[in-house]
Amino acid sequence: MQNHPMKPDHGAKRRKKAKTERNNKSSGFDEVLQTDIDQLLRRNQPETEVAAESPAETPKPILPELFTEIEVTVAELSSTGDGLALSENADHVYVVPFTVPGDRVLVKVVRHFPSLSYSVTDFIKAVTPGPKRNDALIGCQYFGKCSGCQLQMMSYEDQLAHKKRIVEKAYANFSGLIPELIPAIGDTFPSPLRYGYRTKLTPHFTAPPGKSRRQKGPREPHKEVPPIGFTYKNRRLDLDIEDCPLGTDIVRKGLRSERKRVAENIGRYTKGATLLMRESTARIPKDAPDTNTESSAGEKEAGRDSGDVIRIEHDQYSEEKRCVTDPNATSVEYVDDYMFTNKAGAFFQNNNSILPGFTEYIRQQALPPHNQEDAKPLKYLLDAYSGSGLFTITLSTLFKSSLGVDVAGDSITSARENARANALPNTGFAAADASTLFKDVPYPPDQTLLVIDPPRKGCSEDFLRQLLTFGPRRVVYVSCNVHTQARDVAVMVQGDSEKKIRYEIESIRGFDFFPQTGHVEGVAILNRASISA
């Protein structure tokens, strides 16, 4: 009996290559884009033509010269956030940023990839806007040049629908599972804030012109202020960004202050640099004595923050927000009433506005229905890739005991401090080597929930083998890359025939942590099942 059927693999060579390189790929951007391009071409090529012609017999499309301007009509929006437009003969695709389906646009052709059947273009203007384009919604003066945002001209409802489609396509194209094994994708969970949500920005500037790294001797300092900001779309050049409306108010203040500081000291820089602006929050109870509370906002010391302060009044407390600029200084963040301290340069989710709803959703999904009526109810939480303890801490009250595990020692140190600060004695953290992550877990698998939140490249094959060997009863897989998530979930669904264990997908849903961009987070819930003989 076949318990985990897979789709016929018509792209076996491409996916096989992807599998061997999986641990080295951070996002799979090119592969995702190529998949969308290939599918668009197949849908618009007559079946008789596909059957009759071999690749050698297919005539090469005639492409415009580089840097010429042409008009194209956008057919669809790719999972990367770029528009895709077909050539006149539907045998080549133009990748067009900052567009929506139906846009008739003027573009400049900047790169050809004839063997891959597409060309990259720069957006110039919308000649005839499509029905879903509304340029009045654009909230940034740099949109259309900066590589940070892709979707500002779309309504938020359309953005959420597009991101649901991204998740659907990720599982359809990258899991290899037959549709019957994939549940209907849930509606994308919205962000309460669509602008002003980013608690961290990292603009940069390049080294001064002069000697290369291979040449001996120091570079001369900058003689004038270089562009400080983010990269241009489709170029290896920096765009000078004076303000980013995605940042929170204090982060935007910090950006202005840091730009001023760099400009005043530009003669000292012989190298490029990446700047840090990280929001840090102190909560001061209204009935607290009038004492100095600055240290609780994240080490107010010279050179460690921008010097900017924003004070917000609430019923029970005041919030004092600062912008930390030293990666090794401490930043403080609240999720509901839980307090988290971290090194400002360490990873922590960058959209605080969505975190209460996000963690509440995970809490609601953590335990199966009627858990307490079960002979062996879930009592234990194992949080792999725990970082500074976001899930271990916010889920801890549901469990008898919780353990966060991570390979990064600094993250474990922060997590332990956070558990103490939130008075959670049933919560522990341990640093573990990636190759033995599950070796010393003290919990019975039958009563354990596993939460995993890996980096963009997803889980390693070794980690997935360990997971199947341990065999937790329930798994919550959180991912910032739904394409690698789909790939990993498929491994769990296929299971381990020797151990007669596999997993079934209960639900999949996207979360919009980054409005105005093409990024979407995914949450998949899985339950352990048996492989019948």
TrEMBL record:
Compositional bias of kind Basic and acidic residues: 1-11, 280-289, 297-309
All residue ranges annotated as the TRAM domain in the record: 60-125
Binding site residues for S-adenosyl-L-methionine: 349, 385, 406, 453
Keyword Methyltransferase: yes
UniProt EC number: 2.1.1.35
Xref: InterPro entries: MeTrfase_TrmA_AS, MeTrfase_TrmA_CS, NA-bd_OB-fold, SAM-dependent_MTases_sf, TRAM_dom, tRNA_(uracil-5-)_MeTrfase, U5_MeTrfase_fam
Keywords: Methyltransferase, S-adenosyl-L-methionine, Transferase, tRNA processing
Protein family according to the UniProt entry: Belongs to the class I-like SAM-binding methyltransferase superfamily. RNA M5U methyltransferase family.
UniProt-recorded name of the protein: tRNA (uracil(54)-C(5))-methyltransferase
